[in-house]
Write a structure and sequence with these properties.
Blueprint: H1 3-21, E1 37-40, H2 48-61, E2 64-67, E3 71-73, E4 84-87, E5 92-95, H3 107-118, H4 123-131, E6 141-144, H5 145-150
Parallel strand pairs: 1-2, 2-4, 3-5
Antiparallel strand pairs: 5-6
């Protein structure tokens, strides 16, 4: 192989590695993360079981999750546990405790689902959720992405 070809390939590889080392750079599909880039935003949440399973699959694939947009509420916040995650400082995150629509939840189920939810959050956020936000049953306790970044979630 001619030396020019070898040098050209080294240059391309070096530039690619340099681009990955830059702050805020996302790995292209198949480079490092092993998964796709998924942008989440303006998500009002939904049922816990399917969301927990979705987050588990994303984490197993190595997907990069970027939480952007105006808001991420309820089970949307579980994406914080997807592994390779970043948040926009401007996104508003709404937290509340588990429950069943239109009917009461037994304390053992409430505690079980609260613990499952908290496991998706970094330690400081998890402690805050378990001592405060999980007891909210109407509306949300809101934190900004900037507040989550101060709690250890990487910024986008």
């Amino acid at each position: 192989m001619p030396i020019v070809t070898v040098l050209a390939r080294c240059l391309v590889l070096g530039l690619a590695l340099l681009a990955l080392a830059l702050p805020g750079a996302a790995a292209p599909y198949g480079w490092g993360s092993g998964g796709a880039v998924r942008v989440i935003g303006n998500d009002s949440g939904g049922a816990l079981k399917p969301r927990i399973e979705e987050v588990r699959r994303m984490r197993a694939r190595g997907d990069r999750v970027e939480i952007r947009g105006s808001y991420c509420r309820s089970s949307c916040t579980l994406y914080l546990g997807a592994g390779d995650v970043c948040v926009s400082p401007a996104t508003q995150f709404g937290f509340h405790g588990p429950g069943y629509p239109g009917r009461p939840i037994r304390y053992d189920r409430f505690d079980y689902w609260s613990q499952r939810m908290a496991a998706h959050y970094p330690p400081e956020l998890s402690a805050w959720f378990l001592t405060r936000a999980r007891f909210v049953t109407a509306g949300y306790m809101t934190l900004s992405g900037a507040e989550l970044i101060r709690m250890g979630v990487p910024p986008c």
